[in-house]
């Protein structure tokens, strides 16, 4: 009789251990894949090979249309890529989910005001998350090769996502905001976001789509 409670405790511990291992695999497996995929495709502005397009992923924009520091860092990096002749067009992809919030137009204005020709900056108004932006870059704008630009902690997932949906993607990260709790929160959040990315890719989730846009083709002189 005294052995039964011990047996139940042992079984419970084994079950909890198995669940813990399974949970860790679910989180750490995608994280490892993302890291391995991104490592050989991560560069600086000076070292990245040329590509036709830079894809700038959206982030918070203020009510007056001013980019937040995180978004400004991404846009400044894209401007440097353009000035260095690494890309010929910039695709800014972000959230325009309601009439009072518009990331792509704010991003586009910022780049144009800093000297990028208006025709070379194309706006994607339905880039509601990283997966959506990558899929739409390929299926709506016809981009097959690009340099993706975002914060350094987000860059591995952005590169992996683009490559998994069929784009030859390399990446350049911004580190000007590499401090404080927001950056640390972003690093932790990526663990869950990696799992979502795998689910999106495996289920071939369809983002908001529409007719083919020729804006990138025109920017590239096609």
From TrEMBL:
Domain named DUF218: residues: 53-172
Top-level lineage group: Bacteria
Protein name: ElyC/SanA/YdcF family protein
């Amino acid at each position: 009789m005294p052995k039964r409670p011990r047996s139940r405790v042992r079984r419970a511990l084994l079950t909890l251990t198995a669940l813990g291992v399974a949970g860790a695999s679910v989180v750490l497996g995608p994280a490892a894949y993302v890291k391995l995929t991104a490592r050989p495709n991560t560069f600086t502005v000076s070292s990245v090979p040329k590509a036709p397009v830079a894809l700038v992923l959206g982030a918070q924009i203020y009510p007056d249309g001013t980019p937040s520091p995180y978004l400004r860092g991404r846009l400044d990096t894209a401007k440097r890529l353009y000035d260095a002749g690494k890309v010929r067009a910039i695709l800014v992809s972000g959230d325009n989910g309601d009439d009072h919030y518009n990331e792509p137009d704010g991003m586009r204005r910022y780049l144009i005001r800093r000297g990028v020709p208006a025709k070379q900056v194309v706006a994607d108004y339905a880039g509601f998350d990283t997966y959506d932006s990558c899929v739409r870059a390929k299926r709506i704008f016809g981009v097959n090769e690009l340099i993706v630009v975002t914060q350094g902690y987000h860059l591995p997932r952005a590169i992996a996502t683009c490559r998994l949906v069929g784009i030859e993607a390399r990446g350049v990260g911004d580190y000007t905001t590499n401090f404080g709790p927001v950056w640390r929160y972003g690093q932790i959040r990526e663990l869950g976001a990696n799992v979502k990315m795998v689910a999106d890719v495996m289920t071939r989730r369809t983002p908001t789509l529409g007719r083919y846009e020729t804006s990138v083709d025109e920017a590239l002189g096609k």
